[in-house]
Amino acid sequence: MQRISKSWRWPLAGLILSSAGALFVPIGDMLWIHLFVTLFAVVLLTRLAHQEVPFPLALAQLRLGADDPAVLRARVMSAAVCLPQGRADLALSRVKSVLPDLTRVLGPLHPDTLSARLLSLQVQGETGGLPDRLTSIRELIADITPVLSPGHPDVLAAHYCLAEWLNQDGRTDEAEAAYGTVVTAGTEQLGPDHLVVLIARSSLTILHYDRTAPDNHAAVDEMTTVVAAMERTLGATHPTAASTRHLLTQWQNT
């Protein structure tokens, strides 16, 4: 049963029990009622199981086993893809279910485990699920930096998360320093056109724009440079590039 995902054991058991039960139900109306009720129950259980572990992942686990690193990584990815869809609750549910398995199989300081921890903190911090999100993200940065190096995308993403939360809390000086860390380290290790660097530059520029109003022409010029880099690297239709271009246009029209 270890190769069968926990969430898919219920619909599988329901299918087996309903098939066995049909053998003891007399042919007639009772049989049709039995089939209708059990079919409804199995469909419902299947939908719930698919929500927790998508069916392709369940098949991969059946073939490779629950502890296969590729299966565990795919489970984390299935959580991450929920965020662009606006389903933070499902993302958090999925990442929480896979974190204990990652910790047990790969260890608490494995890069995949740390990435899943980062995703969990990001979702909880944005949805109000962390009582002290700044302390939590700083603890993760302390754990993740020696393992992955200061310029790793996940480390930079953690610093960016810290900067965003500091900015939201009105601690703009600390937020500016945290954004600067992402831009400096990211430019050195990943290059100036890496997505996390460009996003951090745009966020830092927005902070400067708000702090220097109404004399914020330098921020407008900097954002013009950032947008050009985004469109060159990502394409003009990329959501991040398009939304940043829209913001720049608003600034220019003000």
Write up this protein.
The longest helix is centred in the first third of the chain and has 24 residues, at 29-52. This protein is 78% helix and 0% strand. The chain has 254 residues and is mainly alpha-helical.
Keywords:
254 residues, mainly alpha, Serine Threonine Protein Phosphatase 5, Tetratricopeptide repeat, 3 domains, elongated
Helix and strand arrangement:
Layout: H1 6-22, H2 29-52, H3 55-64, H4 69-80, H5 88-106, H6 111-127, H7 133-148, H8 153-168, H9 172-189, H10 195-212, H11 217-233, H12 239-253
Point out poorly predicted stretches: none
Number of strands: 0
Largest β sheet strand count, sense and barrel closure: none
* Overall pLDDT metric: 83
Q: Using the coordinates above, name the CATH class of the largest domain.
A: Mainly Alpha
User: What global shape is seen?
Assistant: elongated
Question: What proportion strand?
Answer: under 5%
Q: Output the number of helix runs.
A: 12
CATH topology (fold) name of the largest domain: Serine Threonine Protein Phosphatase 5, Tetratricopeptide repeat
From the alpha carbons, calculate the radius of gyration and give it in angstroms: 24 Å
What percent of the residues sit in helical stretches (DSSP H or I)? over 70%
SSE string, helix = H, strand = E?
A: HHHHHHHHHHHH
CATH architecture of the largest domain: Alpha Horseshoe
Count up the domains.
Answer: 3
Distance between the termini: 63 Å
CATH homology superfamily name of the largest domain: Tetratricopeptide repeat domain
What class would the helix/strand composition place it in?
mainly alpha
